[in-house]
UniProtKB/TrEMBL annotation:
Bias kind Polar residues: ranges: 1-11
Disordered: annotated segments: 1-24
Domain of life: Bacteria
Gene name of the encoded protein: grpE
Assembly mode: Homodimer.
Record carries keyword Cell membrane: no
Function: Participates actively in the response to hyperosmotic and heat shock by preventing the aggregation of stress-denatured proteins, in association with DnaK and GrpE. It is the nucleotide exchange factor for DnaK and may function as a thermosensor. Unfolded proteins bind initially to DnaJ; upon interaction with the DnaJ-bound protein, DnaK hydrolyzes its bound ATP, resulting in the formation of a stable complex. GrpE releases ADP from DnaK; ATP binding to DnaK triggers the release of the substrate protein, thus completing the reaction cycle.
Record's protein name: Protein GrpE
Residue ranges that the Swiss-Prot or TrEMBL entry lists as coiled coil: 24-62
Family listed: Belongs to the GrpE family.
PROSITE patterns reported for this sequence: GRPE
Gene3D superfamilies (alphabetical): 3.90.20.20, Head domain of nucleotide exchange factor GrpE
Compositionally biased region (Acidic residues): 12-23
Keywords associated with the record: Chaperone, Coiled coil, Cytoplasm, Stress response
Length: 175
């Protein structure tokens, strides 16, 4: 082989290697870009899965909120019916009263089974705006400002969410 042919072959080989290196670098860049896109899509899919699971759990726990709120007046009315019966009539209406008490107890059990619990403050407890609704404020000797002096209706929680605040009267007596 002549020197000219050898030089020509070397130039061709260098051009081929340069072209090959450029192609290889382009392929690596494309691979890295595709890997990055894949990782982003994978992370988005995982986030969507977690969000769907969280939404499913929340719907399971709190999906019955409207029904639960609609049942609270039934509880209140049964409770009021029992409280309205005069003591002298209790003996005469024993079976009826027992039926209403059983119905109220069953309603309370069903509500408890579904995560509905009572918020039952007592007179003397401290007012908590997260759980109680102040219906009136009045000075009452022997109490401190912010103490509950009367409970008008019980409140209810659905798991950890407030369905209805307990309606209370609060002392305004300065401490």
């Amino acid at each position: 082989m002549s020197q000219e042919e050898t030089t020509s072959s070397q130039v061709e080989l260098e051009e081929f290697e340069t072209q090959d290196a450029g192609e290889l670098e382009a392929l690596r860049a494309e691979r890295d870009e595709l890997r990055d896109k894949f990782m982003r899509v994978l992370a988005d899919a995982e986030n969507s899965r977690k969000r769907a699971e969280r939404d499913r759990k929340e719907a399971e726990m709190y999906g019955g909120t409207r029904l639960a709120r609609d049942l609270l007046p039934v509880y209140d009315n049964l409770n009021r019916a029992l409280q309205a019966i005069p003591d002298d009539s209790r003996q005469a209406s024993g079976a009826l009263i027992e039926g209403v008490e059983l119905t109220l107890r069953e309603l309370t059990n069903v509500m408890g089974k579904h995560g509905i619990t009572k918020v039952s403050p007592a007179a003397g407890d401290q007012f908590d705006p997260q759980l109680h609704e102040a219906m009136f404020e009045a000075p009452l000797p022997g109490t401190k400002a912010g103490q509950i002096i009367q409970v008008l209706t019980e409140g209810f929680l659905l798991h950890d969410r407030l369905l209805r605040p307990a309606q209370v009267g609060v002392s305004s007596t300065p401490g």
